[in-house]
Amino acid sequence: MVLCTTPFEVTARNIARVLGLADYPFLTVQHPIGSCTLPELKERAEVAYRQALPILLE
Q1: What is the dihedral of CA 56, 30, 19, 54, to 10 degrees?
Q2: Band of the pLDDT at 39, cuts 50, 70, 90?
Q3: 52, 29 in Cβ contact below 8 A?
Q4: Rounded to an integer, what distance in angstroms lies between the CA atom of residue 44 and that of residue 50?
């Protein structure tokens, strides 16, 4: 599973398409994460978790 921040989503989708995995599910969170406070990082982790759960349960 791949997690990327929103500015890199287009690049990630293009790489997946080139590799023949156009429908590959990505998790995306708001950019940036490197300078987040702990509460901000926890919020982004919750967003990623909510996106990942249905993918993992398929």
Answers
A1: 20
A2: very high
A3: no
A4: 10
